Every structure is written in structure tokens, then in C-alpha cells.
Amino acid sequence: MKAARFDLVRPRDLAEALDLLAAPAGVVKVMAGGQSLGPMLNLRLVEPDLIVDISAVPDLRRFEREGGTIVIGAGCTHADLEDGRAPDVGRDMLARVASGIAYRAVRNRGTVGGSLAHADPAADWPTALLALGAEIELASKVGRRRLPLGEFLTGALSTALAPGELIVAVRVAAASASAGFGYVKHARKVGEFAHALGAAVIDPEAGAGHAVVGALDRAPIVFEDAGVLFGGRVGPDARSFDRTVADAALKAAGVENEASRHVHVEILRRALVQAFERAPAPARAAA
């Protein structure tokens, strides 16, 4: 099957892109890398009147540091992060997530902003960036606003994007020098969508951390205080992980199948173990 007929416009700058989104004629879709939208067009799951191709907008490809915050343009590709063209928030954190997304051909074109806008529960960036405390910067003709990623992701394939709005950047605070990041994905084979995702940031030196369970039929589950998974406080390792707490959270979120909950809990546990292992050795000793 081929896509239905549509008009295609490639704006030269952000102002032109926002003008097009502010005065739509019929159904309008935004395309950056096209790795999700392309197949949907060919399957006629969407039949837009107009596609606004933002891949050539320079403002959306910027990477910069603002104090202790890394600003990643929404048009940044997965490969940009994998290859180190964009700054990382810590030691091999964003690069490690990026390198595990699908295949290199997809990573060369797929974008961080596109992944977040699509909000597929099985995608890597929603879960990973939630664990890293990301903030989304949105723009429209009436101005800009920022939202914590947890408020932006409202459900499976659902976001807080308003009509005429565009993701312009992702903002992530640089990780603490004593923190470790864990990210584990369960899929049938390399390149396939995940059946379970776990992400965690643990700072043993501070006795704090948070964790995320993704690849659910809803927005990811966020444990703002990972201490609840360890009997009240994050300790120096993951040996005291309480599976029953994570299992109860999954059941409350509507995951009724016991085998499915077991897989999600185990993937979360492995992400936490990885986070502890990747925390700098001096921090682990201090804890």
C-alpha cells in the first residue's frame, strides 16, 4: 500500500515552520526523520493534507550547554548522540541509549524530538529521558513553554502538545559525578520494539535515585524516590531490592498478567543493578 496524496513543505527556519502550523489547512503532520510517520503513511494509518518537513530547520539541530544543563535540539538524530556530536549528560549515558535503538540506518535519520512527539511506549527515549529528569521545550506562534517530560507524556501515543506547537529542544541536567545510570531493554531480537524497559539513576553517595518502568500500554511508571524499592532508602548496592513494591505498582497500573509483571520487574531490577555498577568506584566506597 502507498500513502494517500498530500502536500509537502520544507520550511527554512523555525519561524516559517511555526507559521505553517499556526494556519493549517486540513490535517497537518510534522515530519523530522520520518521513521515512524513514513510507515504510518504507507499503511494509511494517517492521511494528512499537509506534511511540514522540519529536517532542514537549523534551530532544531543545535547542541549546547547552558550552565549545568545540556540542550539537545529536537532535530538531533540518535546517531548524533551515539557518535558524540552532541554532548552527553554523563559518562556514556545518552550515547548508550542511542546506540541500542533499532538499526544504524534508523539512527541516522530518527530524531529525539520525533520519538518523544510520537510517544510510543516501546520507544527508548521516553523511558530513558524520564529517568534523567528531562524537560521539554515547546514553541508556537504565541510563545514558548517548558514542561517536565512526565507532564508532557500523557499516555500511550499521547502528549500534551497543543495545536500549532512543536518540540524545539530537550533539556537535561548534567548528572552528578557520583551517579550511575542503568538502562536495560528486553526485546525478542536486536532492532525490534521493546517488550519491557527499565531505566534508573542512582547516586549511592547521596543515598538517592529514581527509576522508570517503560514499554507499557500507558505512560511509563516513574519511581521519583527509588528508595521505596529498597525498603525506604537507596543503599550502596541493589541486593535489598524489593520486588513486591515494583510488582504492586505494575498491577495498579493495569498489568494484570503475572508473567508480564515478572518480566518488567526483572528488567527494572537489572537496570538498578547496572546503575549501581556504573556509579564511580569512589562514590560506592563512600556509601
UniProtKB/TrEMBL annotation:
<dbReference type="InterPro" id="IPR051312">
    <property type="entry name" value="Diverse_Substr_Oxidored"/>
</dbReference>
<dbReference type="InterPro" id="IPR002346">
    <property type="entry name" value="Mopterin_DH_FAD-bd"/>
</dbReference>
<feature type="domain" description="FAD-binding PCMH-type">
    <location>
        <begin position="1"/>
        <end position="177"/>
    </location>
</feature>
<dbReference type="InterPro" id="IPR016167">
    <property type="entry name" value="FAD-bd_PCMH_sub1"/>
</dbReference>
<dbReference type="Pfam" id="PF00941">
    <property type="entry name" value="FAD_binding_5"/>
</dbReference>
<protein>
    <submittedName>
        <fullName>Carbon-monoxide dehydrogenase medium subunit</fullName>
        <ecNumber>1.2.7.4</ecNumber>
    </submittedName>
</protein>
<dbReference type="InterPro" id="IPR036318">
    <property type="entry name" value="FAD-bd_PCMH-like_sf"/>
</dbReference>
<dbReference type="GO" id="GO:0071949">
    <property type="term" value="F:FAD binding"/>
</dbReference>
<keyword id="KW-0560">Oxidoreductase</keyword>
<dbReference type="GO" id="GO:0043885">
    <property type="term" value="F:anaerobic carbon-monoxide dehydrogenase activity"/>
</dbReference>
<dbReference type="InterPro" id="IPR016169">
    <property type="entry name" value="FAD-bd_PCMH_sub2"/>
</dbReference>
<dbReference type="InterPro" id="IPR016166">
    <property type="entry name" value="FAD-bd_PCMH"/>
</dbReference>
<keyword id="KW-0285">Flavoprotein</keyword>
<keyword id="KW-0274">FAD</keyword>
